[in-house]
Design a protein that fits this description.
Strand order of the largest sheet: 2-1-5-6-15-14-12
Distance between the termini: 120 Å
Number of strands: 25
Oligomer: single chain
Number of helices: 9
CATH class of the largest domain: Alpha Beta
Number of domains: 2
Shape: elongated
C-alpha cells in the first residue's frame, strides 16, 4: 500500500478537525480566535481579559504579529472566526496577513477587536480607516482632559481619563449598569460621517482634546470635545462586528484592578469599570448578545394549513415567523413590537406590524391586494446592536378565472333591470307593430 494516502490523512485530519470547531450560526460562541501581539508578555499583563474569553468557551491562539507562520486561512478556508489585534506598533504582519487580508476577513462575516495607542503604526491606522474610524494624525497625540481625569494620574498631564459617557444600549453593554468610570489612556479617533454603521460606545467629555501632552499647544487641536471617540464599534451589513479602542492599556490587568476616582467627584470606586465594560462589549462583538435568527417562515390561506403555490386577489392569508436571540448559551425568544412584514411588488402594497405571543412567534393576517403579479413577503429588521434580518419569499398572485366571478352583483341590479326592461319594451313594440291593424 502506498504511503501517500496515509501521509495525506495525517496532514488533513487535524485541519478538518479545526474546521469542524469553527463558527456555526447555530452556536455562535463555539469559536476559534487568533490573538496577534506585539510582545508575548501581553499574554500575562492582559490575562484577565483573555481569561474572560477562555472561560466563555473561546479557543485563543496567541501569536506574535510578525510570526512568519501565521495565516488566517488555508486552502481557501478560514481557520479562525475572530481576530484580536493587540499589536499597535506592528508595521507589518507575518505570513500571508496584511491589511487587505484583514479587511477581507471582516467582509466574509468575521469579527475583529483592535486596540491601539500613541505608537499606532500606519498599518493599524489603515485598518481602522477601512472600518470607518480615523485616528489622530499626530503620532505623538493623546487624549487630554483637565476635568475628567483620574485622581490617580501621577504624571500630572491628565492623560489618564476616567470616562463614564457610555452609549445607552443594553444590547451592547448589558442590563447591569456600569457604576464605576472606565480608565482610558491612549489616542482618540473620530468617526467617518459617511459611514452610518460605526457608533461611539465610550466618548470623551466636552472639555477633552487630542494633542501632544509634552508640548504646549501652538495651534487648535484637530479633535476636541465629545467628537472624540475613545471606543467605537461597527456592525457591518453582513453582521460582522468590529471593536476599535484607542487604548491598549484599558484591557490590562492593572487598569482592570485599579481604584478609580474621577476628578471633581467625592466617590472613590474600589475597582474601575474596565472589566465589566470590556467583558460586556466583547460578548456583543463575538455574538453572545444581539445575535438573531429567524426560522419557520410560513404563510397560508386563512383556515388552511398548507402553503399554497399562489394566491388569488382578495384572498385572506396569514403570515408567521419565529425569531430567537442567542443568549450566550442557548436560543431564547426575542420579544419586540416593531417587527414588520411587507407584501411587496416594486413597492409595498401591504405593510403590517407583526403581533407576538412573547415566545418568539410573530404573526399577522391581511387580505391580498386587488393587483395581480409576482409579490414577495419581505421582513427587513434592523435595530441598534442586533444582527439584521432580511427575509423574503416570492409568491405569485393571479386574478379571478372566468368562472370565479359572481354571476349577479348586487350593485349591478339597476343595470340588469334596465337591460330586461329594454328587452321587454322591444318585445311589446314589435308585437304591437306586427299585429296592430
Amino acid at each position: 500500500m502506498s504511503r501517500l494516502p496515509l501521509i495525506f490523512l495525517v496532514a488533513v485530519i487535524p485541519f478538518l478537525s479545526t474546521l469542524c470547531t469553527s463558527f456555526s450560526p447555530e452556536k455562535p460562541s463555539d469559536r476559534r480566535i487568533l490573538v496577534l501581539l506585539d510582545d508575548l508578555a501581553l499574554q500575562s499583563s492582559h490575562s484577565l481579559f483573555f481569561d474572560s474569553l477562555s472561560s466563555r468557551g473561546y479557543a485563543l491562539d496567541f501569536k506574535l504579529a510578525d510570526d512568519p507562520k501565521i495565516g488566517l486561512k488555508r486552502y481557501g478556508q478560514y481557520l479562525y472566526d475572530g481576530l484580536i489585534l493587540f499589536a499597535p506598533s506592528a508595521d507589518r504582519f507575518g505570513g500571508n496577513i496584511d491589511s487587505a487580508a484583514i479587511v477581507d476577513f471582516i467582509d466574509v462575516g468575521h469579527d475583529l477587536i483592535i486596540a491601539a495607542d500613541n505608537s499606532a503604526s500606519e498599518r493599524i491606522r489603515e485598518i481602522a480607516t477601512e472600518c470607518g474610524v480615523d485616528f489622530d494624525d499626530d503620532q505623538a497625540a493623546m487624549v487630554v482632559d483637565h476635568t475628567s481625569y483620574a485622581v490617580s494620574d501621577t504624571e500630572g498631564d491628565h492623560t489618564l481619563i476616567a470616562s463614564d459617557d457610555f452609549i445607552q444600549s443594553e444590547v451592547l453593554l448589558g442590563s447591569n449598569k456600569i457604576e464605576a468610570p472606565v480608565l482610558f489612556q491612549g489616542i482618540g479617533h473620530s468617526l467617518n460621517p459617511a459611514n452610518s454603521l460605526v457608533l461611539k460606545v465610550l466618548s470623551a467629555s466636552s472639555a477633552a482634546y487630542s494633542a501632544n501632552p509634552k508640548t504646549k499647544l501652538s495651534s487648535p487641536p484637530s479633535l476636541t470635545g465629545s467628537a472624540i471617540s475613545l471606543v467605537s464599534v461597527v456592525q457591518a451589513r453582513n453582521n460582522a462586528r468590529v471593536l476599535i479602542s484607542g487604548s491598549l492599556s484599558m484591557f490590562s490587568n492593572r487598569f482592570f484592578r485599579s481604584e478609580v476616582q474621577k476628578a471633581g467627584s467625592s466617590i472613590k470606586h474600589a475597582k474601575s469599570g474596565n472589566e465589566q465594560f470590556l467583558t460586556e462589549l466583547s460578548k456583543w462583538v463575538f455574538h453572545e448578545r444581539g445575535h438573531l435568527k429567524a426560522v419557520n417562515v410560513r404563510h397560508n390561506k386563512v383556515g388552511e394549513a398548507n402553503e399554497p403555490s399562489m394566491y388569488r386577489i382578495n384572498d385572506d392569508l396569514e403570515y408567521a415567523v419565529e425569531i430567537y436571540e442567542w443568549s450566550g448559551k442557548s436560543w431564547e425568544p426575542y420579544v419586540a413590537n416593531d417587527v414588520q412584514v411587507q407584501f411587496y411588488m416594486m413597492s409595498p402594497y401591504v405593510l403590517k406590524t407583526l403581533s407576538t405571543d412573547q415566545k418568539g412567534l410573530y404573526f399577522t393576517a391581511f387580505k391580498v391586494p386587488d393587483v395581480y403579479g409576482v409579490f414577495q413577503f419581505k421582513v427587513e429588521y434592523q435595530q441598534l446592536g442586533y444582527t439584521s434580518l432580511s427575509l423574503s419569499k416570492q409568491i405569485p398572485v393571479r386574478p379571478f378565472r372566468h368562472n370565479e366571478y359572481e354571476r349577479f352583483l348586487t350593485a349591478a341590479f339597476p343595470y340588469y333591470g334596465a337591460s330586461f326592461s329594454m328587452m321587454a319594451g322591444f318585445f311589446v313594440f314589435t308585437f304591437a307593430y306586427l299585429y296592430n291593424k
